């Protein structure tokens, strides 16, 4: 019988892993076992704050890192210039989020007048419950709003009327067209002169993650709320947690890429802490396991449990093999494999290259199964030969690279440093 390895506090782990250290700082919980040794290390100037800043920038969670450092009492140990930089970035993010919040209020009022029912997803929902208890903690990429498909054109016209501009979307490849997979949202809309971007969803998600949280279930369990007096609706706490999980693991192949974004994990931990008494962990795990994501869900929970001190729900099974994946992901974070980092020290470079090579092998072995479930899931039996052919061709063309996204991150390394 598989059991989860006994959880060790972060204090017993090596402090030279920026991924693990950043996860500790981003946690909404206070891990007293780890805080003491870390405070001592900070006093002795043994923490590489520059490396943590680089990792936070890559994970789009630098303002949240600043907020947590201030809450946990670590801010005074940072170099003065870094404190000033983080403070300025946090203030800028407050202004940026104010623009998003005002835009969301305007959209909700407009859609309400037009009779378009809305459901706020991801970051948009945090405006309604102040999840982070700080207006500048979360970085917003766009506003995700779910509507019913029949209102798509009406919503598009409303956005254009409000001054938004529609982005040109790349043509879908032949496999997407063949399999009947269409985008689950309208093309992205930007508001000129502002940082605001909007994605109007007609489905909660697509492919494997979409089957984990179907649209009808999302609407049925939604909860009414308000935003500055405007009526709104958000997913139930359990469904928000479920949506966060599949979004972090599936769409960009993050689990098999050994690249779990800490911004997603931090929100997972924050949701778990805020709605602890209302979460149905049994449903969370059952819906994931029902789509062959049981191990992925356990590993994701293990990361939050081990690195962010999230209590383990009794109804979620513990598996020893999850520890292997946990080691794989944390090791990838330490070596910067998913981010394309290249250490200068010879020994570190050899370890990084060996880690990258092993994880690429793992990725290539797992990639066909991911594609089969996420690109070619049309149920018709007659499609089987074509699905096999397309999967093999797509896999064969992929080479040994983990993803194009890793290359893009590598290109931005110099700018961030």
What would a concise description of this structure say?
The protein is α+β, with helices and mostly antiparallel strands.
Coarse morphology: globular
- The percentage helix is 55-70%
Radius of gyration: 22 Å
Instruction: Name the average pLDDT.
Output: 85
Number of domains: 1
The major β-sheet equals:
5 strands, mixed
What is the β-strand count?
Answer: 7
Chain oligomer state: single chain
Distance between the termini: 47 Å
Our count of helices gives 19
- The spatial strand order of the largest sheet comes to 1-2-5-4-3
Class by alpha and beta content: alpha+beta
The proportion of strand residues reads: 5-15%
Order of helices and strands: HHHHHEHEHEHEEHHEEHHHHHHHHH
Unreliable segments of 5+ consecutive residues? 1-13, 171-181, 399-417
């Amino acid at each position: 019988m598989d059991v989860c390895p006994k959880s060790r506090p972060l204090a017993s782990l090596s402090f030279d892993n920026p991924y693990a250290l950043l996860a500790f700082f981003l946690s909404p919980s206070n891990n007293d076992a780890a805080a003491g040794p870390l405070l001592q290390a900070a006093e002795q100037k043994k923490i590489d704050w520059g490396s943590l800043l680089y990792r936070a920038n890559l994970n789009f969670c630098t303002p949240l890192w600043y907020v947590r450092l201030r809450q946990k009492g670590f801010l005074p140990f940072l170099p003065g210039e870094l404190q000033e930089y983080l403070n300025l970035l946090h203030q800028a993010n407050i202004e940026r989020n104010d623009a998003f919040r005002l835009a969301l209020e305007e959209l909700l009022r407009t859609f309400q007048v037009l009779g378009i029912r809305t459901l706020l997803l991801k970051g948009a929902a945090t405006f309604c419950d102040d999840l982070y208890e700080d207006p500048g903690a979360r970085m917003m990429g766009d506003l995700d709003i779910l509507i019913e498909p029949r209102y798509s054109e009406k919503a598009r016209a409303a956005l254009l009327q409000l001054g938004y501009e529609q982005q040109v979307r790349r043509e879908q490849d032949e496999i997407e067209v063949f399999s009947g997979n269409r985008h689950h949202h309208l093309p992205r809309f930007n508001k000129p002169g502002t940082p605001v971007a909007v994605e109007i969803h007609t489905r909660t998600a697509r492919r494997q993650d979409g089957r984990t949280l179907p649209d009808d279930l999302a609407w049925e369990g939604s909860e009414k709320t308000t935003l500055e007096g405007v009526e709104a609706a958000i997913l139930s706490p359990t469904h928000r947690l479920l949506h966060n999980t599949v979004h972090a693991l599936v769409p960009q192949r993050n689990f098999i890429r050994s690249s779990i974004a800490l911004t997603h994990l931090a929100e997972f931990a924050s949701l778990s802490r805020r709605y602890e008494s209302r979460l149905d962990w049994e449903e969370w795990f059952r819906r994931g396991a029902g789509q062959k994501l049981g191990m992925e869900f356990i590993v994701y929970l293990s990361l939050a449990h081990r690195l962010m001190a999230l209590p383990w729900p009794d109804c979620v099974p513990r598996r020893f093999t999850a520890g292997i994946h946990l080691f794989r992901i944390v090791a990838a974070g330490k070596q910067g494999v998913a981010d394309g980092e290249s250490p200068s020290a010879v020994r570190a470079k050899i370890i990084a290259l060996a880690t990258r090579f092993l994880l690429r092998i793992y990725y290539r072995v797992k990639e066909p199964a991911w594609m089969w479930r996420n690109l070619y899931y049309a149920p018709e039996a007659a499609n089987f030969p074509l699905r096999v052919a397309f999967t093999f061709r797509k896999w064969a063309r992929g080479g040994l690279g983990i993803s194009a996204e890793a290359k893009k991150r590598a290109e931005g390394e110099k700018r961030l440093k």
